[in-house]
Amino acid sequence: MSLDTNFFARPLTGLPLATLLMAVTPWTAQADDIDEASLGIPGVEACSARYTEVDAPRPSAAGNGHDAIREGFDTRRHWGTKQNVDRLGADQTGLGEPGLRVHYPADTSSPGDGEKGGAGFYTEPAALAGAERACLTYRVRFEPGFDFVKGGKLPGLYGGDAPSGGETADGENGFSMRLMWREQGQGELYEYVVDQTGTSVGRGTWTFPSGQWVTIEQEIVLNDPEESNGLARLWIDGQPVLEQRDIVYRTTPDLTIDGLMFSTFFGGSGNEWRTPRDQYADFAAFRLYVPTT
């Protein structure tokens, strides 16, 4: 399986809206809740080229994944890190820096569905304090022959309480902008923002391969309170794949971008989402950027 390079040559607006916006859970917003005119492809260079790097968190030298995360990412908000995470050395990633291997044990899906597979944690780097624009990059590598089943979650940026799991984003309590893999490795943006609670955006506009590193780059520009002028942009391996405009992340200036929401597991919940066998994915090369002042 390889990246859908033909996609980069065709306009996003030429794709059916049903392809761009697909429901993924019972509480997901329907396709007609997002205006097709708000979707496109980034017309600017990748955010890592326009912003300044301010943080490069990575696993510490601790011998286990749990401690490596707590120390290297300076977090105390986590789940699944003791059971399902190993630290990878730089020789194992091949990237010149350490990484994380997250396990998804057989017959597991979301954290709220029986046995827990995957892991999650939150960062709040001081360098992002008060940020209204931010850029996140990281790399993911699904094991060779990875069975994507119906889908699963991937990390993204968040603010406030990072609503998820069917919670309502009310403009004051926060937002989350994770990614998902879907059947056969299709990629998508998966958002919790005002009026969009668990919405699938841009599904299939790129495809994750297995057995090789893929670079994800996400830019978020918060809306002005009382305005619907927020932005989200994605690049995959340096190629622009998705831009969404007119997003309402917040209704108060007190809500800003806090950091990385590391979140990965199969699901959804229910038997049809669960991984049929033990599987893993690797993560590394996390970087955070903000605009040059």
From TrEMBL:
InterPro entries: Polysacc_lyase_14 (IPR048958)
Alphabetical keyword list: Signal
Record flagged with keyword Metal-binding: no
Domain Polysaccharide lyase: residue ranges: 97-286
Signal peptide: 1-31
The protein's name: Polysaccharide lyase 14 domain-containing protein
Species: Halomonas flagellata
